Protein 1
Amino acid sequence: MFKPLVSTLLLFLVIIAYGQVEEGNPPEGMVLIPGGTFMMGSDHGQAIAAPKHPVTLHGFYMDVREVTNKEYQEYCLATGYKHPEFWGLGLYKSGPDYPDHPVVGVSQFDATQYAEWAGKRLPTEAEWEYAARAGLEDISYPYGENEDHTRSRFNDPEVEKGPVKTGSYPPNGYGLFDMSGNAWEWVSDWFSESYYSESPEQNPAGTSMGTFRVFRGGGWHSGAGCTTVHRRNGLPPHWVDIAGGFRCVKELSKQ
């Protein structure tokens, strides 16, 4: 007679345990993104961003800001790795004269190498969108439904060419800066137009192979529509761009 009660209690404890995350302070420059379930994608836009579907993720840490020129230079000096495209030319705020601007001109391979050196990794596409939404479902931008130049750096003829310093605009609900605009960000997934129709619900990580890698968030020269939280794009992993950057994540168990 007690079996239903015991089963219910066990289920309740499992739900609580799944929602919990490890205690302790996040690594420097990162913030805790708690695990949870959200509706990924959009049924009102790109066909490749549909269908809107539920995704459940474990918690993780994410860089509060996009990786900066200063941080990437430290990596290059420590490892002998090549500096990114456009470095030190004064173009697009790239190089040591702009330490607090997001590094651009890096390929997905470059970003992956940096993340491994830093003891981190690139986010999955699902982790990136979940973090960008910060618990808000019916939005197009991390800050709300409508585009706003006071909240994000995207194509604006009134602003000097190039990105701005990371953190120049207000953060989203998770305390993350520049999840829309400034530098678009590489993620770890291979790109597939049909993936949303076949994606697993638990911690999806993309297809096992492909031709393009996914990037998210749009950049300083992107139109507003390219900077939405659900916009998907893909490019060859060796591609470099004047607005192409990244940020990293870290597993909770690997502090």
Protein 2
Amino acid sequence: MHNKASLSLALLIMLASGYGVITAWSWPWKAALFPLVIGIPVFCLAAAEALWALFGKRPADGRASDFQLSRDLPEKETRRRTAIAIGWMLGFFAGIVLVGFPLAVALFVFLYLRLHGRESWTLSLTFTAVLWGIFYALFDRLLHLPFPAGWLSSWFGLA
């Protein structure tokens, strides 16, 4: 039963993403970029899932196989790591709201490298600058995507 449901879902996702890619193919490049960048990998992953459902090995006991990262860790450590990951995500979302997306990306990368990764100042600053440069060149200069200003910029009249 599990394989039939998995195969059905994979085929449905392949159908939806394939339709999106085919439809977007004739659009102007800027309009088609997002559907193509998302749709093509989603289609490929769904196709891999469909192949896995059709030809993959089933566990001997008949249960669904599952990938678990924390099987060998104590429950307390697993919860701590989960809380840290959720905290970083919430911090990133708060940064987007407060300072705007482009600055939040740079702040997140820098703070994550320095605080969580404990990387050197040189590596953290260099990596952040390079990433922000790529981000700026792609989204602002090449695609001309406007990002709304963060609340702090709006409140202080900087936007």
Protein 3
Amino acid sequence: MRKAILATVFLLAVPTPVFADQMTVSDLQAICAGRDAEATAACKFYILGAVDGAVLGEGRKTAGGPLCIAPASSERLIPAVKAAMAADLKAFPRDRTLVAAGFVLAAAMRAFPCHK
């Protein structure tokens, strides 16, 4: 079961065609670059929602799954994803068209690897 869950999470990070109603990495970067309260909240809650969705899909608490993010670490998660976005898009500009949710999950898994 765990292997199937990990495979699903990693597949989300694989470049896939974006449907018209899906947010891209470029869309998320534009929102996260905003300085007003609405943009800050939208960025934060998109990132948290993507991670929470993966956790819900896994059916476990975050600390026990492939995403080892403690519930109180959103203060570290948001900057980690934003930094990963900036670095990735600088090195790979074509990644702007990737699905944002998959990118967020991949960035979260890199920033918070499970230590067993």
